[in-house]
Design goal:
The chain is about 40% helix and about 5% strand. It has about 325 residues and is an all-alpha fold. It folds into two domains: about 140 residues, Cytochrome c-like domain (Cytochrome Bc1 Complex, Chain D, domain 2, Orthogonal Bundle); about 140 residues, Cytochrome Bc1 Complex, Chain D, domain 2 (Orthogonal Bundle), CATH 1.10.760.10. Strands 1-2 form a two-stranded antiparallel ribbon. A two-stranded antiparallel sheet has the order 3-4. Strand 1 and strand 2 form a beta hairpin. The longest helix is centred in the N-terminal third of the chain and has 24 residues. The termini are far apart. The chain binds heme C (2 copies). It comes from Sulfurimonas autotrophica (strain ATCC BAA-671 / DSM 16294 / JCM 11897 / OK10).
């Protein structure tokens, strides 16, 4: 009896380890468990992560006063309580303006793992990226001068910059964006998938494991891979045309390449695709099969893949709502126009 149990266990663990191997061979990679390995993956050598910088970056991320109206922060469109996005088809910013290209907000969780940022990959990293939305007219609509004036008007902010970067810090627009970016680097969400890949066979359910197999067999991992389970640039409309291509004017980068979205926490970030026209995960999976792989994904396969995607729902880092320094007479006033 004992022997049989032992044998079955070995067979089961062999199967699990071969699935891990298949996933690795397909290019899928886990978030490392070891803190030092993870730090190496997410840190910015040019501006290393420290507690003081991350705390300050968090305040700036949540501070709507960086925007022209005083109402819109990064968290407005990338809501950390809601999967790191806004649930809109096209993002809505300053003066209730929808994104002019009908682009939806990608999640900021795990964005650090992207090779490039934005749907067309036009920015190399989260620090560079953060400069965009603050100044974009349909988003936060602020000038660089506005941002510096807001931050330097509040002595508590100036003190925090000094604490983070030293007494002689020069508070520039770039420094603000770099600090927000550094906070974003900490927004990683290890999931059951990672525990499974890192050796805990029972971290994923049977259905999720089957879904992972389907995901690999059908070919999804040829683009959704790496630690981000996405994050590279890839061709779009490979075998057929996306059925809502006519909504908005987005065509990808100069070569028609599109940033492959991370599938981490994807169950929380509907609606889907660059223009948010696909309401459910099941439809997104089927449309992907049709346009990217020329595969007719059955309901059963879609359900199986969806189960696997559930194993990418990660544990969010604990983010304590920051208390922001109070505005004073020197702080620029909100402007709604
Ligand atoms: C009005 C809504 C809005 C606001 C405010 C906003 N964003 Fe975004 N964000 C978007 C949209 C829309 C995109 C995609 C735009 C594109 O690809 O051209 C985006 C893209 C991103 C990306 C790229 C993610 C990826 O997967 O490519 C990151 C990171 C990001 N924003 C962080 C920020 C930060 C940090 C702030 C605050 C400084 C901010 N956003 C403010 C809507 C917003
Ligand atoms: C040839 C590369 C490629 C393949 C293969 C591929 N994808 Fe994608 N996937 C992309 C790109 C690029 C996008 C972004 C498309 C857009 O938004 O316009 C995307 C978007 C998605 C989205 C929407 C995510 C979001 O946040 O909006 C899901 C879900 C998805 N893919 C799942 C899958 C599944 C499941 C498979 C296998 C059936 C698959 N993909 C195969 C490249 C690929």
């Amino acid at each position: 009896m004992k022997k049989i149990v032992a044998l079955t266990l070995t067979a089961a663990s062999l199967m699990a380890s071969s699935l891990v191997q298949d996933a690795k061979n397909a290019g899928l990679a886990p978030i490392p468990t070891e803190a030092s390995k993870l730090l190496k993956l997410i840190d910015n050598p040019k501006n290393p992560i420290t507690k003081a910088k991350v705390e300050l970056g968090k305040k700036l991320y949540f501070d709507p006063r960086l925007s022209k109206s005083g109402l819109i922060s990064c968290n407005t469109c990338h809501n950390l309580s809601k999967g790191g996005d806004d649930g809109m088809q096209a993002a809505v910013g300053h003066k209730w303006t929808a994104n002019p290209h009908h682009l939806s907000s990608p999640t900021v969780y795990n964005a650090v793992f992207n090779d490039k940022q934005f749907w067309d990959g036009r920015s190399p990293d989260v620090e560079d990226q953060a400069q965009g939305p603050i100044q974009a007219a349909p988003e936060m609509a602020a000038t660089q001068e506005h941002v510096v004036a807001v931050v330097t008007s509040m002595p508590a902010y100036v003190k925090e910059f000094q604490k983070a970067y030293g007494k002689n810090v020069k508070i520039t627009f770039k420094k603000v964006a770099d600090t927000i970016g550094l906070f974003e680097r900490t927004l990683v969400t290890p999931a059951p998938f990672d525990a499974f890949m890192n050796g805990d066979e029972n971290a994923m359910t049977k259905k999720q494991k089957e879904g992972l197999k389907t995901f690999i067999q059908v070919g999804c991992a040829s683009c959704h891979n790496g630690v981000g389970i996405g994050g590279g640039m890839n061709a779009f409309n490979v075998v057929a045309k996306y059925k809502y291509m006519n909504v908005g004017d987005f065509k990808g980068d100069a070569n028609g390449m599109v940033k492959v979205p991370t599938l981490r926490n994807v169950t929380q970030t509907a609606p889907y695709f660059h223009n948010g026209m696909i309401p459910t995960l099941k439809d997104a999976i089927k449309e992907m099969g049709r346009i990217q792989l020329g595969a007719n994904i059955s309901d059963k396969q879609a359900k199986s893949i969806e189960a696997f995607l559930g194993a990418l729902d990660g544990k969010k880092p604990y983010v304590k709502l920051p208390m922001l320094p109070a505005t004073n007479d020197n702080t620029p006033k909100p402007e709604l126009n």
